[in-house]
Amino acid sequence: MNIRDALFEAQKILTRRRCKSSTPLLDSEVLLAFVFGTSREYLYTHPEAPVAHTRLVRFRHLIQQGMKGVPIAYITESKEFFGMKFYVNPHVLIPRPDTEILVERTLKKAQKLRRPSILEIGTGSGCIAIALKKYLPHASIIATDISHRALVVARRNARRHNFPITFLYTNLFSHTALRSKKFDIIVSNPPYLSKHEASKQALAYEPRTALTPFRSTPRKFFAKLLTEVPQHLNQDGSFLFEIGNSQKSIIVRLVSTYLPRYSVKFFDDLSGSPRVACIQKSLIRT
Known about the structure:
The protein is about 40% helix and about 15% strand. It has twelve helices and nine strands. The protein has a seven-stranded mixed β-sheet with strand order 5-4-3-6-7-9-8, sandwiched between helices. The chain has a two-stranded antiparallel ribbon with strand order 1-2. Helix 8 (about 150-160) links the parallel strand 4 (about 140-145) and strand 5. Helix 1 packs parallel to helix 4 (about 55-65) and helix 6 (about 100-110) runs parallel beside helix 7 (about 125-135). The N and C termini lie far apart (about 70 Å). One of its GO terms (molecular function) is nucleic acid binding.
């Protein structure tokens, strides 16, 4: 069997009604390229290349995992984010393209500062902190998480990209190193889904604590964030965080309730939905 035939067979399997894949051709290409240890471009330019039996057996096994709904990123243990490759496993959330907007907006804020101090809450794979460090080499970055296993992944990615970042195991600001510390920028992709949203099949393999607040609701968790974060911002500091599709009005009400003298601005994702909120300590409503 050659590459073209293997891809055709896999795509046919992943197109079946009971299959969980929404992108069968792409998934097939990614998995076959992974088995070959090469790029998808190689598959396009060598469609007649034979697929060795051992590779074919492995490829079919991976396709069966994909058919069951196991995310391709977990199968290959790799996901691209902001032009960089990151190691991922089921202990961390898979980086999403929408989260790149959070990085872009944070970079715009930080680039105005000579040596910005940045804190990331809930780092997961470390992709946000590492992407920021790549473009802000003089920044001082601390990244936290409530999962020891997630921090293992984050540290592995930081070593892989050779970026010095301080990782702390803590819930929000409870770590002694953070209790009295202030930052120019605090950034977070928090667990903002409801338990119902997090229970959907498409998210079944991802860590629940990265999707929905533990023993809480998104509204209560956002309220906690908004009451604690400002105490750790410098005078002109900014707090940027990702939100869900329908949470803009919730954030507006919470800011009005808990931070009446602060201003909040929203930035849309590629589909036009509010995806990133930015609260600035120096912008005061009149």
